[in-house]
Write a structure and sequence with these properties.
The protein is α/β, with parallel strands linked by helices. It has a single domain, classed as Alpha-Beta Complex (Protein-Tyrosine Phosphatase, Chain A). Helices cover 36% and strands 15% of the residues. The chain contains six helices and five strands, in the order βαββαβααααβ. A five-stranded mixed β-sheet has the order 3-2-4-1-5, sandwiched between helices. Helix 3 crosses helix 4. The chain is globular, with a radius of gyration of 14 Å. The two termini are 13 Å apart. The model has no long low-confidence stretch (mean pLDDT 96).
């Protein structure tokens, strides 16, 4: 079954072994970026050095439009025969925003709220980074619908670190 996986960095090795993804997206601060895991194909690993901030003036390396463009292009090259694994430091914000953007792209316009609610159901801890979602919304021409849909998720369960979460591309 085609699926996205979201994990924290601490679960990356286990998720790679358990799910055998064909593609990997790492979203970590530039100074904490990891090398491609041993044995994983380097061209199938997208590394985006961004910090988990939502105000572009509040710090260094905020998510930008170029990051949204790169992650969407990378995900469009994924054939979905094996999982695509997305991780950030905690598996809560940057990686959930990336999964949300990819799901919105794959499932098409008009399903933003449905996807946001399905994300909350599968990942009570999800807090998608709103700035990264805003850039993906612009890249996909959704006119703010992706950002507004986040308000339909309801409040998250507050955790220090998420757990590996599966998002199927079918049946959301």
């Amino acid at each position: 079954m085609p699926r996205l996986l979201v994990a924290p960095l601490s679960s990356l090795a286990d998720a790679l072994q358990a799910h055998a993804p064909s593609h990997l997206i790492s979203l970590l601060s530039p100074e904490h970026m990891i090398e491609t895991p041993a044995g994983f194909p380097i061209p199938m690993h997208l590394k985006l050095g961004i910090n988990d901030i939502v105000d572009p003036l509040a710090g260094t390396a905020p998510p930008g439009r170029e990051h949204a463009d790169r992650l969407l292009a990378f995900a469009r090259d994924w054939d979905a025969k094996q999982p695509l694994l997305i991780h950030c430091w905690a598996g809560i914000s940057r990686s959930m925003a990336t999964a949300y953007a990819i799901l919105c792209d794959r499932l098409g316009p008009g399903r933003e709220i449905q996807i946001a609610r399905a994300m909350r159901q599968r990942a009570p801890h999800a807090q998608p980074n709103r700035l990264l979602v805003q850039h993906a919304d612009e890249a996909l021409g959704r006119g703010g619908k992706m950002v507004l849909a986040l308000d339909h998720m309801g409040p998250p369960v507050l955790l220090q670190e998420g757990v590996t979460t599966i998002f199927p591309l079918e049946g959301l």
